[in-house]
Amino acid sequence: MKAFLGSIVTVLLLAAPAAQAWTEVAYETIFANQPTFQQIILRNSKAEYQEVMVQVMNPNGARIQRAEVITEQGWSKPVWRLEGDYRFGMQRSDVFQKAKIRYFRTYLTTLRPGEPVRLRVMMR
Fold first, then answer.
1. What single string gives the DSSP state of each residue in 52-97?
2. Within a domain: 11
3. Partner of 86 for a Cys bridge, out of 3, 90, 115, 116, CB 3.0 to 4.6 A?
4. Rounded distance, CA 88 to CA 111, Å?
5. Tens-of-pLDDT digits for all 124 residues of the chain?
């Protein structure tokens, strides 16, 4: 019985890292002193995704308003949990129905005027 449980645990541990691997699909530098509409084309739009994570990589952060992902068919899927203020390195994620995603769309502004926002978008 211990051997059987041990093999189940081993299989689950081996499957976990593959299921949790994030793929970076975009890394953009955006100049946005006012809420600016951004439609970011994803690098790897061939794969199907069901989760998105956004990370802000500039020192003084940014504010994301109205985030959504757009499928290859043009359907919009809102990702509400990504909205809000971000500081350096801060990240948030949200889930949506599995689909091939073509764009990440948002209204974005910098928290410090004149500073560029470095936005990293990852999916799995």
1. EEEEE-STT-EEEEEEEEEETT--EEE-GGG-EEE-TT-EEEEEEE
2. no
3. 90
4. 11
5. 555 445 544 444 444 445 579 999 999 998 877 778 889 999 876 789 999 999 999 888 899 999 999 999 999 999 999 999 999 989 999 999 999 999 999 999 888 888 888 999 999 9
Residue 61 CB neighbour total at 10 angstroms? 18
**Could you give the C-alpha distances from 106 to 38, 66, 119, in angstroms and in order?**
5, 6, 11
Please report where in the chains the tokens 């899927």 appear, as a residue. Answer: 77
Q: Which pair of structure tokens corresponds to residue 116?
A: 């560029």
Q: Is residue 80 part of a domain?
A: yes
* Residues composing the chain: 124
CATH of the domain at 100: 2.60.120.260
Q: Does residue 13 belong to any structural domain of this protein? A: no
